[in-house]
Amino acid sequence: MIHTSHTASSVPDIQPGEPIISVRDVVVGFGERTILKGLSLDVMKGEIMGFVGASGGGKSVLTRTILGLVPKRSGTVEVFGQDLDTLTYEQRRQLEQRWGVLFQQGALFSSLTVRQNIQFPMREYLDLSPALMDEITIAKVEMVGLQPDVVTKMPSELSGGMIKRVALARALALDPEILFLDEPTSGLDPIGAGEFDELIATLQQTLGLTVFMVTHDLDSLHTVCDRIAALADGQVIAVGPIDTMLASKHPWVTAYFHGKRARAAGFVEQGAR
Ligand SMILES: Nc1ncnc2c1ncn2[C@@H]1O[C@H](COP(=O)(O)OP(=O)(O)OP(=O)(O)O)[C@@H](O)[C@H]1O
């Protein structure tokens, strides 16, 4: 495995179970609209945190705020114990190498081959020989359960599930410590979604990743997430393992976790066992 020299000596070493992402009193808005209204949340090193909320409620905005892609009106975000707002350009680039992102529109670059897509972050951040990049590419492809010969294909030749896996391989290209996934199973059939969940759980265990996963998928929440945070009205209104969600009296959480969809999936009964 290739490890990049991303740890500056001043960077605190975060232990498993300690916060690797700390969001405090964050306010984000666009024009007149305030989307995140003093939101606070900790994601602990080594956990899979699922993030749920009403459509349009601000889940993607929070993800992009943590990544420093959306300006805050107030509040702080620390990742790896570092406040992104205080970093120099170089420090920021070093930090970016320590996370991988699979965005909702997990789009691959359609004019690039799978190999070129996966190598994109390597070219952006590292200075590696083509032979080494090819070697890493094959390792990542195999890691996400694809055959090596997929690297020569164009995205248009792949199924939806394969595209997600290639996008995941690209997110893993720099051996990140945190993986951000924005609705990773959307658009997949239930079997494909279940297989993708299993892959995430396996990768989390074998690589010791921390995973922050925005999802609407009740099965994902139930099967892979260590903890879940629910967003409503711009704030986190419940956070904890699935049992905490099932016991919550908040109307949105109740409607979500005990609603028709949850019952149809047999989710409430399983979760309540
Ligand atoms: N750059 C932007 N400029 C203006 N409004 C924005 C911008 N980005 C997001 N919004 C608005 O912020 C709100 C929250 O959007 P966001 O994409 O975070 O929702 P979400 O919870 O991820 O929804 P979904 O589950 O449907 O993906 C939406 O009303 C959206 O239109």
SSE layout:
Elements: E1 19-30, E2 33-44, E3 48-53, H1 59-66, E4 74-79, E5 82-83, H2 89-96, E6 99-102, H3 114-125, H4 130-143, H5 160-171, E7 178-182, H6 190-207, E8 210-214, H7 218-223, E9 227-232, E10 235-240, H8 242-247, H9 251-258, H10 260-264, H11 267-272
Parallel strand pairs: 3-8, 3-9, 6-7, 7-8
Antiparallel strand pairs: 1-2, 1-4, 4-5, 9-10
The site of adenosine-5'-triphosphate has 10 residues, from α1.
Keywords:
ATP binding; P-loop_NTPase; single chain; transport; 10 strands; globular
In a few lines, what is going on in this structure?
It comes from Ancylobacter radicis. The chain is of the alpha/beta class and 273 residues long.
Could you tell me the radius of gyration in angstroms? 19 Å
Number of helices: 11
Mean pLDDT: 89
Lateral strand order in the biggest sheet: 6-7-8-3-9-10
Elements, N to C (H/E) = EEEHEEHEHHHEHEHEEHHHH
Largest sheet: 6 strands, mixed
Distance between the termini: 40 Å
Broad shape? globular
| Helix content class | 25-40%
Low-confidence stretches: 3-9
Q: Which molecules are bound in this entry?
A: adenosine-5'-triphosphate
GO molecular function: ATP binding
Organism: Ancylobacter radicis
Domain ABC transporter: 21-258
Protein name: ABC transporter ATP-binding protein
